[in-house]
Amino acid sequence: MIEAYLIHILILIAIYAIVAIALQLCLGFSGLLNLGHIAFFGIGAYTSALLLLLGVPFIFCFLVAGLMAMVFGFILAIPTHKLKGDYLALATMGFSFVVYAVLLNWTELTRGPLGIPGIPKPNLFGFSFSDNFSFLILAVVIALGSYFIINRIVKSGFGKVLEGIRDDELATRVLGKNSFKMKSIALGVSAFFAGIAGSLYASYITFIDPSSFTIMQLIPVLLIVIVGGLASLPGTIIATFVLMALPEALRFVGFPSSIVGPMRQILYAVILLLILIYKPKGFFGRVEME
Q: How many CB atoms sit inside 10 A of residue 118's CB?
């Protein structure tokens, strides 16, 4: 019983690690406070779920989920490319509300608040990842691959330009770099990885509904990035392990199940406030939240 529970937690850690390092690319390395990140996660989940239910192979659903989220990332970059800080945060938050409203009200496609049940488990080259242990292996492999790719991106010349835009966009533009293009690519790549994480999530849970992709669901991911430290991928992975496992202790304290959820949100909020006050760079970060 405990083994099955631990495998479940590790699968969620692998999925949320992908979402968090994707957000790190935007927030930590590009300086884009993107609060619409959870919307890309939801777009990927719904895209993959709908295609899987039509009998489309998982590998195709997985890639299309990422590409669909990437397209919306590029679309979001167009009206927000001149916004910074709080204004960018509000605009991207509005995008997440729009996506949530579409998922909730386009009942012919998404079934609205009823959600989409019976999402098939992944099947690759004739092998079905129907049990949790095999799914854990798949999730870990994809998480490691995502980490490797994003790490290569941020250490490349492109990544250095993103850091320049984060620190001083005007100076970067004076040096001849197209900041709009660079930020758009960063937002699109970040959305792609959030989308493939959504595909994994939908196939693992086998049921999704709009409540899984609200702004409240972004708080743990944002907290992981801030606690781990801005512009620190290793810190993000460590923070994912700690912050995904820590609230699970509430289940063993003896609280009624009806208040475990609210207590988890309170815990996240308290940790976020303490980090912003006493450790603005996070534990492994190189830049401070502005």
A: 9
**Is residue 61 a contact partner of residue 199, using CB atoms and an 8 Å limit?**
yes
pLDDT-derived band at 151 (thresholds 50, 70, 90) equals very high
Do residues 119 and 53 make contact, with C-beta atoms less than 8 angstroms apart? yes
Question: What pLDDT, on the 0 to 100 scale, is given for residue 116?
Answer: 96
Residues near 82 by beta carbon (within 8 Å), at least 6 away in sequence: none
User: Helical H runs in the chain?
Assistant: 2-30, 37-53, 58-80, 85-105, 107-110, 132-155, 157-167, 169-174, 179-205, 218-228, 233-245, 257-278
Answer for the pair 204, 139: CB distance below 8 angstroms, yes or no: yes
Tokens encoding 208: 């999704």
3-class secondary structure, 124: strand
pLDDT, average across residues 179-194: 95
Name residue 123's beta-bridge partners.
128
Alpha helices of 175-251 — where are they, by DSSP H?
A: 179-205, 218-228, 233-245
Q: Are 74 and 141 in contact (CB under 8 A)?
A: no
Helices first, then strands: H and E counts in the chain: 12, 2
Q: What is the DSSP letter of 212?
A: G
Would you state the structure tokens that stand for residue 70, as one six-digit string? 């990437």
φ, ψ (nearest 5 deg) of residue 265: -65, -40
Whether pLDDT at 141 is above 90: yes
Place of tokens 């939801």: 42
The model carries a pTM of: 0.94
User: Does residue 253 carry a pLDDT above 80?
Assistant: no
Q: Which of 13, 73, 6 is nearest to 37 (CA)?
A: 73
Predicted confidence (pLDDT) at residue 3 exceeds the cutoff of 70: yes
Would you say residue 262 has pLDDT above 80?
A: no
pLDDT, residue 290, reads: 59
DSSP letter assigned to residue 208 = B
